[in-house]
Amino acid sequence: MAKKKNQVAADYGIVRVAAVVPQVNVADVDGNVKHIIENIDKAVAAGVHVVVLPELCVTGYTCADLFGNELLLDAAEEALLKLCEHYKETPVMAVVGAPLRCSGHLFNCAVVINRGELWVIPKTYIPNYKEFYEKRWFTTSNITAMAGKESIVVGGRRVPFGTHMLFEAGRARVAIEVCEDLWVPVPPSSIAAINGANVIVNLSASNELIGKHAYLMDLIKHQSAHCIAAYVYASCGYGESSTDLVFGGNAVIAENGKIFAEGRRFDTQAQMSIADIDIQALENERRINGSFADSMVQMGNQYDHIPMAVAPVLDYEKEELLRPVRRLPFVPEGDERLTARCEEIISIQTQGLMRRLDFTGIPTLVVGVSGGLDSTLALLVAVKAFDRMGRNRKDIHAITMPGFGTTDRTYTNACNMVRSLGVTLHEISIAKAVTQHFKDIDHDPKVHDVTYENSQARERTQILMDFSNKVNGLVLGTGDLSELALGWATYNGDHMSMYNVNVSIPKTLVRHLVRWFASALDDGTKKGKAIRATLLDVLDTPISPELTPASKDGTILQVTEDIVGPYELHDFFLFNMLRYGFTPAKLYLLARKAFKGEYDNATIKKWLRVFCKRFFAQQFKRSCLPDGPKVGSVSLSPRGDWRMPSDASSRLWIAQCDNLPE
Question: Where along the chain do the CATH 3.60.110.10 domains lie?
Answer without folding.
Answer: 17-307
